[in-house]
Design a protein that fits this description.
CATH superfamily: DHBP synthase
Radius of gyration: 15 Å
Structural class: alpha/beta
Largest sheet: 9 strands, mixed
Shape: globular
Strand order of the largest sheet: 7-1-2-6-3-5-4-8-9
């Protein structure tokens, strides 16, 4: 795994798009702070730019680097929910504008996947995590379900976990509200 971490981080540092296994399904990723390469991900997915993308971090301690205010409820939820959880935060900062929603919110998941955590830690920045499919197509659960179009358009395909089955669905998404509560966006 260590060799694959090094290779993947090298591609990320060189502004490239990766296809990689996450704690949910296979994802397309890149440096979440680089608007030019985020744009390439939108193009690969044929996704409308008005739809934001999820970013991954390796630990909750880094949330303050990318969100102006991290409410206690967000930390409580992240630490208490066992399944993959994406939290939509207001007042994002230090990220490419094109990973944000129109209302300047950002969707962040703290990855529990060992490989993802290692590449994020080594890379030193958050990475985009969007499903490895053309927008509107079904999410591929297995590596061999990813379309050849996607595989041919990314710059690097991680050579790990190609036969592993993780969660059979994307993460739960919640959106924090100013009053300290939240709405479930996707379960």
């Amino acid at each position: 795994m260590e060799e694959e971490v090094k290779k993947t981080v090298e591609y990320l540092r060189n502004g490239k798009v990766i296809l990689y296994p996450t704690d949910t399904i296979w994802g397309i990723g890149c440096d979440a702070t680089n608007p030019r390469i985020v744009q390439k991900v939108y193009k690969i997915k044929r996704r409308q730019e008005s739809k934001s993308m999820i970013i991954l971090l390796d630990e909750t301690a880094k949330l303050n680097q990318y969100v102006k205010d991290v409410p206690d409820i967000a930390l409580d939820l992240i630490n208490s929910i066992e399944t993959p959880l994406t939290v939509i935060f207001s007042n994002a900062k230090n990220l490419a504008r094109n990973v944000l929603a129109a209302d300047k919110t950002v969707a962040i998941r703290i990855s529990r996947d060992e490989f993802c955590r290692k590449i994020i830690r080594e890379f030193g920045k958050p990475i985009v995590s969007t499903s490895a499919n053309i927008s509107g197509d079904p999410n591929p659960i297995l590596f061999n379900q990813i379309s050849e179009k996607i595989k041919n358009e990314v710059d690097y395909i991680v050579n790990l976990h190609r036969t592993r089955i993780n969660e059979t669905k994307p993460s739960t998404i919640i959106k924090l509200k100013p009053n300290g509560s939240y709405d479930v966006i996707r379960q």
